[in-house]
Design a protein that fits this description.
CATH class: Mainly Beta
Number of strands: 10
CATH architecture: Sandwich
Distance between the termini: 32 Å
Shape: globular
CATH superfamily: Jelly Rolls
Structural class: mainly beta
Radius of gyration: 16 Å
Order of helices and strands: EEEEEEEEHEHE
Strand content: 35-45%
CATH topology: Jelly Rolls
């Protein structure tokens, strides 16, 4: 297995500096942004909390079908799922404790507010647009690995447990191992 797609840690990713890091106008061409590989998914940050003064971040995710993403909750992060292409099943536990899921198809939208346990499973190869509370878009870079390539289909990057815990703590997120879903 080769790892030439990963950013050279000594140099940093080729995309470094593509986002202004301040609330200035800017534009990105197709395929541009800050890329990170996490498991089989390619995440690309298009707009970070640095550009929105911490208000929100925008990213895309290109995901192959796979296992259920572990159930988790964010202390302060609201999360938007907008499916550009494919099918993604989102599982959520409401504030009343009801567990439900919804299959999102191309053009469908979902919102999970901060504090609610949730998970998702990519049912078909998918592209999603995500909007999150500012700063959380960096989670995927911290738990995953920055990559120079914006192309999907790269070898998976599987973080060790310590890296997963550190990223979750830094972004005020908890993995909830004891939550199960009736239709998962």
């Amino acid at each position: 297995m080769s790892f030439e797609y990963l950013a050279d840690p000594a140099v940093g990713p080729a995309w470094q500096g593509v986002l202004p890091g301040a609330p200035d106008a800017f534009f990105l061409r197709s395929g541009e942004g800050e890329h990170a590989q996490l498991f089989g998914d390619l995440f690309t940050v298009l707009l970070s909390g640095a550009e929105t003064e911490g208000q929100f971040g925008v990213m895309t995710a290109q995901c192959p079908p796979g296992e259920l993403i572990p159930t988790h909750a964010h202390d302060e992060t609201h999360e938007v799922f907008y499916v550009l292409d494919g099918e993604v099943r989102v599982f959520v536990q409401t504030r009343t404790g009801e567990k439900t899921s919804r299959l999102l198809r191309t053009g469908d939208f979902g919102f999970v507010p901060a504090g609610l346990p949730h998970a998702y499973r990519v049912e078909q190869p998918s592209r999603m647009l995500g909007v999150v509370t500012g700063g959380f878009e960096r989670f995927f870079q911290h738990m995953g690995a920055p990559t120079d390539s914006g192309e999907p289909g790269q070898p998976p990057f599987v973080p060790d447990v310590a890296r997963m815990r550190t990223a979750a703590q830094e972004h005020r997120m908890q993995f909830l191992q004891d939550v199960t879903w009736p239709d998962a």
